[in-house]
Design a protein that fits this description.
Blueprint (H helix, E strand, L loop, with lengths): L2 H40 L5 H22 L4 H12 L4 H7 L6 H15 L14 H15 L2 H8 L12 H20 L5 H18 L5 H22 L2 H11 L3 H12 L2 H17 L3 H21 L6 H25 L1 H40 L4 H80 L12 H51 L14 E5 L2 E5 L6 E3 L2 E3 L9 H17 L6 H10 L2
Helix pairs in contact: 1-2, 1-3, 1-6, 1-7, 3-4, 4-5, 8-9, 8-17, 9-10, 10-17, 11-12, 11-14, 12-13, 13-17, 14-15, 15-17, 16-17, 19-20
Length: 612
C-alpha cells in the first residue's frame, strides 16, 4: 500500500486503540466496583490494594484482548474509507486485488490512488463503538456506587455496623453495669488506698451513667478515655513516689541518696533497702566530725528534694523521708554536742597522751632489747667473765620489763581511744536504727502505692471492656468441675462396693446351699450303705462299706470290686484288661462328681486300691 493509504490507516488504528482503552477502563472500573460491593455487603475489611489489583488486571486483560483480536485489517480499513469518503468501493477493490497484476487491475489501482491522493485524513470522522460510552458510564456508576455498599448493607441489616456495639438497649446497659460491678467488687477486695477506692468507684458510677443507651462505639470510646484519664489523675493524687523519687535522684549529690530516689520512683522495695544499707555503711566508715557532716548532708538533701517535689506534707511517703531527715539532723546535733564538750576533749587529749606514752615506751623497749642483745654478745665473747654474764642477764631483764611497760601503755592508749570514740559509736548505733525504721516505713508506703497502680490498671482494663461489651459467657469453674468429677468417681466407687457386697452375699448363699447339699448326701449315704461281699459290692446309692477279704464302692450306675488286686468296672473277677481298668476309674470319677465329693476322696481311694 502506498503512503496515502497508510496515513488513513494510521488514523483508524489510533481510533481502534482509543476504543480498546475505553473498554479496558470500563472493565477495570466494573471489576473493582463489583469487588467493593462484595466486600461491602459481606462486611469484609476494606483493603485498597486488593480492589486496585482487580481493576488493573481486568482493564489490562480487556484492552489486550480487544486490541489484538479486534484489530482492523486493510480490507476493513478500505471499506471504512470508501464509505466515509464516497469512493464507490475503489479502495476495497484495490485492496482485494493488491497482489495481482493486469492492465485493468493496474488501471483501477491508479485511479483509486489518484482519488485517495486528493483526500485529507481529516475527512474521515473519529468514531467510537456504539457501546463505548454506555458501558463506560455504567461501569463508572457501579464503581462510584460501590463505595456506598457498606452503608446499604448496614441499613438492610446484612452486616453489623462496625460503629455500633453488638449489644443494644437493655442488654447493652445491663452488660455495662455487670462489668462495672465486677470491677468495683474486685477493687473493694484489693489492698488499694481507701480514699482512692472511693474516688475510682465514683468515676465508674459516672461512666456507667454516661454510657447508658449509647451504642455508638466512637462516643463510648471517648467517654471511657475521659474516665480513664480521671482514674490516672486520682492515682497521681494518691501516689507520690514518682514526684519524690525524681526530685531526690535529681537533687542529691550523695550516690546512695541518688539510688534511693531512683528506687522510690520505680517502686522497687529491694533497691530501697540496698540504698539505705549503703548510707549506713557510709556513716560507719566516718568518725567524729566527718560523721556529723555526713548526717547533716543527708538531712539537707532529703529536705531539699521534698521541698521541690510539690508533695503535701501529709503524704505518708513524704512523712517517712521527713522523719529520716529529722532523725539524721538530731543525731548529728547530739554527736556534735558530745564532740564539743570538755569531757570529750579531755578524753581525746588523754587518748593522745596515752598513745604518745605507748609510743615512747615502745621505743624504750626497743632500745633496752638492743642493749640486752649487745650484752649477750659480750657475754658470749667472754664466757669466763662473770660480770659480763651478769650484765647480760640484767640487760635482758630490763628489756623484758620495758617491753611489758610498752604493752601496758598501748593497752591504756586503746582504752582511752575507745572511751573517746564511744560517743561516735553511739551515734552510729542510733543512725542504724533510724535507717532501719525508715526502710520499714518507706517500703510499706511503696507497697501501698504499687497496689494502687495495679488496681488502677485493672480498673481501666474493665473500662476498656465497656467499649463494645460482649454477652457474658458462662465461665468455666474449675473448682465446680473438679467437684463434679469427684462426685462421679465416688458414685462409681459406691456402686462397685454395692456390687461387691451383693456378690459376697451370693457367694455365701451358694456356699450355704453346697453345705446343705453335702449334708443331705451324707445322710443319704449312711441310710443306703450295705454290707460288703467278699470280692464284690453292688450299691444303689452313694456309700461305701468294708468286709471280708475285699472292698467295694458304688453309686448305682457302676459296680466296682477288688479281687487279688484287680480293679474292674462291671464287678468281674480276675480281669486284667487295661481298657476295663481305665473305664472303671472314669466311672469312679463321674460318681464322685455327681455325689458332690469335691475333695476327690473316691478317686484317691480307687487309685490306691489299684496301685497298693
Amino acid at each position: 500500500m502506498n503512503n496515502d493509504f497508510n496515513k488513513f490507516k494510521k488514523k483508524l488504528m489510533v481510533e481502534h486503540l482509543v476504543k480498546s482503552i475505553l473498554f479496558g477502563v470500563a472493565a477495570g472500573l466494573a471489576g473493582a466496583g463489583l469487588s467493593l460491593v462484595v466486600f461491602g455487603l459481606t462486611g469484609t475489611d476494606f483493603i485498597a490494594w486488593v480492589h486496585i489489583l482487580i481493576g488493573v488486571v481486568l482493564a489490562a486483560a480487556t484492552f489486550g484482548l480487544l486490541y489484538i483480536y479486534k484489530r482492523p485489517d486493510d480490507k476493513k480499513i478500505a471499506a471504512r474509507l470508501d464509505k466515509d469518503m464516497h469512493l464507490q468501493e475503489k479502495l476495497s477493490t484495490m485492496v482485494q486485488f493488491q497482489n495481482q497484476e493486469s492492465l485493468l487491475i493496474n488501471k483501477q489501482r491508479d485511479d483509486a490512488n489518484e482519488k485517495l491522493a486528493f483526500k485529507n485524513p481529516k475527512q474521515v470522522p473519529f468514531k467510537l463503538a456504539v457501546l463505548n460510552i454506555p458501558i463506560l458510564a455504567v461501569a463508572g456508576a457501579l464503581f462510584a456506587g460501590s463505595f456506598f455498599s457498606p452503608a446499604v448493607a448496614k441499613a438492610l441489616g446484612i452486616v453489623d455496623d462496625p460503629t455500633k456495639t453488638d449489644l443494644d438497649g437493655t442488654d447493652l446497659n445491663e452488660r455495662t453495669e455487670e462489668i462495672a460491678k465486677d470491677a468495683k467488687d474486685a477493687l473493694e477486695e484489693s489492698q488499694a488506698d481507701e480514699d482512692l477506692k472511693e474516688e475510682m468507684n465514683d468515676i465508674m458510677d459516672e461512666l456507667v451513667e454516661d454510657l447508658e443507651d449509647d451504642n455508638d462505639i466512637d462516643s463510648r470510646t471517648e467517654k471511657i478515655e475521659d474516665a480513664k484519664s480521671a482514674v490516672d489523675e486520682a492515682l497521681d493524687r494518691a501516689n507520690s513516689k514518682e514526684e519524690i523519687g525524681e526530685s531526690l535522684s535529681g537533687n542529691a549529690t550523695n550516690e546512695a541518696l541518688k539510688d534511693l530516689g531512683e528506687a522510690i520512683q520505680n517502686g522497687d522495695t529491694e533497691a530501697v533497702s540496698e540504698a539505705l544499707k549503703a548510707l549506713e555503711e557510709q556513716l560507719a566508715a566516718a568518725e567524729g566530725q566527718e560523721k556529723v557532716d555526713l548526717m547533716n548532708q543527708i538531712a539537707d538533701e532529703i529536705e531539699k528534694a521534698l521541698a521541690e517535689s510539690g508533695i503535701s506534707e501529709d503524704d505518708p511517703l513524704y512523712q517517712a523521708l521527713k522523719d529520716l531527715a529529722n532523725d539524721m539532723r538530731e543525731n548529728a546535733a547530739a554527736l556534735q554536742e558530745q564532740l564539743n564538750s570538755d569531757e570529750q576533749k579531755a578524753l581525746e587529749e588523754a587518748a593522745e597522751q596515752a598513745q604518745q606514752a605507748a609510743e615512747d615506751a615502745q621505743a624504750a623497749a626497743e632500745a633496752a632489747q638492743q642493749a640486752a642483745e649487745e650484752a649477750q654478745q659480750n657475754a658470749e665473747a667472754n664466757p669466763s667473765d662473770a660480770a659480763a654474764q651478769q650484765a647480760a642477764q640484767d640487760a635482758q631483764a630490763a628489756a623484758e620489763a620495758a617491753q611489758q611497760a610498752a604493752q601496758d601503755a598501748q593497752q591504756a592508749a586503746q582504752q582511752a581511744q575507745q572511751a573517746a570514740s564511744e560517743s561516735s559509736d553511739n551515734a552510729q548505733k542510733q543512725a542504724k536504727e533510724d535507717l532501719e525504721e525508715a526502710d520499714k516505713m518507706i517500703n510499706e508506703e511503696l507497697d501501698q502505692q504499687n497496689a494502687n497502680e495495679e488496681e488502677a490498671e485493672q480498673f481501666k482494663q474493665a473500662m476498656d471492656e465497656m467499649v463494645d461489651p460482649e454477652e457474658e459467657e458462662d465461665e468455666f469453674d474449675a473448682e465446680k468441675d473438679e467437684k463434679e468429677k469427684e462426685d462421679e468417681k465416688q458414685e462409681e466407687q459406691d456402686q462397685e462396693q454395692t456390687d461387691d457386697k451383693q456378690e459376697q452375699t451370693d457367694d455365701k448363699q451358694e456356699q450355704s446351699d453346697d453345705k446343705q447339699e453335702q449334708s443331705d448326701d451324707q445322710q443319704s449315704g449312711q441310710q443306703q450303705g450295705q454290707q460288703q461281699q467278699p470280692g464284690q459290692q453292688q450299691g444303689s446309692q452313694s456309700g461305701q462299706g468294708q468286709g471280708g477279704t475285699g472292698a467295694g464302692a458304688g453309686s448305682g450306675q457302676f459296680t466296682y470290686g477288688s479281687n487279688d488286686g484287680v480293679y474292674t468296672e462291671d464287678g468281674g473277677q480276675n480281669l486284667t484288661d487295661n481298657n476295663n481298668i481305665e473305664d472303671g476309674q472314669a466311672g469312679a470319677l463321674t460318681d464322685a462328681s455327681e455325689s458332690g465329693d469335691e475333695s476327690g476322696d473316691i478317686s484317691d481311694y480307687f487309685d490306691n486300691l489299684y496301685n497298693p
